[in-house]
Structures are given as structure tokens and as C-alpha cells.
């Protein structure tokens, strides 16, 4: 069973950057589709970005395209979410998730979840 641990969240001013990490144990992450989701207070958890296990397939929600980049380091069994030009509306708890057969943007398809990391963007 795959265990996921996120890190890298924090408080940043608008326009700043953060890099989130999602480290995996108990499984080889390169075999999994990995997604990032976020949940703001009072809102449902929603899709942010995903990287399919098939090379070259990445997906982003429109609101982060051109600002966020998902990437993998297979040697470290880790997936990253580089977040640039952050906006206050990006404030949320960010979760990584993994699954062998998930449709990348579909939250309910993912079986394995991390505990989340808080990202707060001040204006």
C-alpha cells in the first residue's frame, strides 16, 4: 500500500512561489498517476494538476495553467508541484493522491492520499 507525505506548504505573499513535494513509500510512484488537489475553507476538494503514469501526460485546472508545474523525480520517488505567481485564491490545503488507474482529474478515482499541506497566500 502506498503512503504519501506532502511537504513544502507555508505562508507566502501574492506573486511568490512555493514548491510542494509528495514523497511516496510502499510503492513505486512512477507506476501511478499522481494528482494534486486542494481544498479551501468551506469549499469542496478540487482538482489542481495531475501527471499520468504514461510519460508526457500532464493536466491542469485552467486557473493554474502557466503558473503551476507538476513534475516527478523517480529516483526520489517524489512528485512536485511548483507554484509560481501565487494568488490569494490559491490559499488552501493541498493534497497529493495516487492511483494505478485513475482518470487524472477525477478525485474519487484515487485510492491513496496524503495528509495535506497548508498553503496560505497573503495579499
Q: Over all CA atoms, what is the radius of gyration?
A: 13 Å
Give the termini distance in whole angstroms. Answer: 40 Å
Average pLDDT works out at 95
User: Helix count, per DSSP?
Assistant: 0
H/E topology pattern: EEEEEEEEEEE
Largest sheet, strands/sense/barrel: 7 strands, mixed
> Any low-confidence stretches, pLDDT <50, length ≥5?
none
3D shape: globular
DSSP strand tally: 11
**Structural class by secondary-structure content:** mainly beta
**What's the helical proportion of residues?**
under 10%
Q: How large a portion of the residues is in β-strands, by DSSP E?
A: over 45%
Output the keywords.
single chain, 123 residues, mainly beta, 7-stranded mixed β-sheet, 4-stranded antiparallel β-sheet, 11 strands
Structural write-up:
With about 120 residues, the protein is mostly beta strands. Helix content is about 0%, strand content about 50%. Strand 7 (about 70-75) and strand 8 (about 80-85) form a beta hairpin. The termini are far apart.
